[in-house]
Specification:
This protein is an all-alpha fold. It folds into three domains: 66 residues, Tetratricopeptide repeat domain (Serine Threonine Protein Phosphatase 5, Tetratricopeptide repeat), CATH 1.25.40; 49 residues, no CATH class; 98 residues. The protein contains 16 helices and no strands.
């Protein structure tokens, strides 16, 4: 499931032997491994050390302030640290340098989503899709931005296109199921979750989302059975009370509030 929107990076530097991170840092200046340092920064970022990667990108940008690859890597490293306001500024710099491309549009869109601005975010994803109508991250971002403003019916088409390109992506399909649920299509959500909740790579969250879909469809027995596969009887009982309360409220705002954090975190 797509708990957060992830920006993919270029192939990381292949490291071997007993080289340590301190060795890598020293080699950035001497140029023994990678004269530009970009591969080292990308490898660190891919391995989860976004803070160190950001520092390397900053140093490299001092000498090459208009290098688009460095600007993108730097912005992404900041984003991965959860510094979304700073990341937005960094992506805006990339946008100014490139004159607008999908790396910048998607980065700005993701940042605005994290800052709670789904309408603005959606406009940037839309700009990317005007240039690349099959851009998978932009399709996902556009779908999530519609979900966030209560327009799940509009979101569904973007999920469907993204899934047609990545049918084995269970996280994407999980998000699609949640969107179906918010669009009031509980049975369709049950069908979607039913196909992924018990696969080899399924998660507890996927099964609990199936339980939620059953509950929203009014099938409390099936919801309890599925929820009980992973939760204690007390937690199942508590969840069922919450689901029943939400199901009986008018509109879908309570449902959206209940599940939306599972899409964008």
């Amino acid at each position: 499931m797509i708990k957060r929107i992830i920006l993919s990076l270029a192939t990381a530097l292949s490291l071997s032997g007993c080289i340590s991170l301190s060795d890598l840092s020293s080699n950035i200046e001497t140029g023994l491994i990678d004269p530009k340092g970009m591969k080292v920064a990308a490898a660190l970022l891919k391995n989860g050390d976004a803070g160190t990667a950001a520092g390397i990108y900053e140093k490299l940008l001092n000498d090459q302030p208009t290098n688009e690859d460095l600007l993108y890597g730097h912005a992404t490293a900041i984003y991965e640290q959860g510094k979304y306001r700073d990341a937005l500024i960094a992506y805006e710099k990339l946008n100014a340098e490139t004159g607008g491309n999908c790396d910048a549009f998607v980065g700005m869109g993701n940042s605005h989503l994290k800052l709670g601005r789904p309408t603005v975010a959606g406009s940037f994803f839309a700009q990317c899709l005007m240039d690349e109508n099959d851009h998978d991250v932009a399709l996902l971002g556009r779908a999530i931005s519609f979900d966030a403003i209560g327009k799940s019916n509009e979101a569904l088409a973007f999920y469907q296109k993204a899934i047609s390109q990545n049918p084995q992506d269970l996280g994407l399909r999980n998000n699609y199921g949640l969107s179906l649920l918010m669009a009031g299509q509980a049975q369709a959500a049950i069908n979607e979750f039913g196909e992924i909740a018990f696969s080899e790579f399924s998660t507890v969250q996927m099964r609990q989302n199936l339980a939620l879909a059953y509950a929203m469809a009014g099938d409390t027995g099936a919801a309890e059975k599925v929820a009980g596969l992973d939760l204690s009887s007390q937690r199942v009982a508590n969840n069922m009370k919450i689901y029943e309360y939400v199901r009986n409220l008018p509109g879908n705002e309570a449902l959206k509030s209940l599940i939306f954090q599972g899409i964008v975190q």
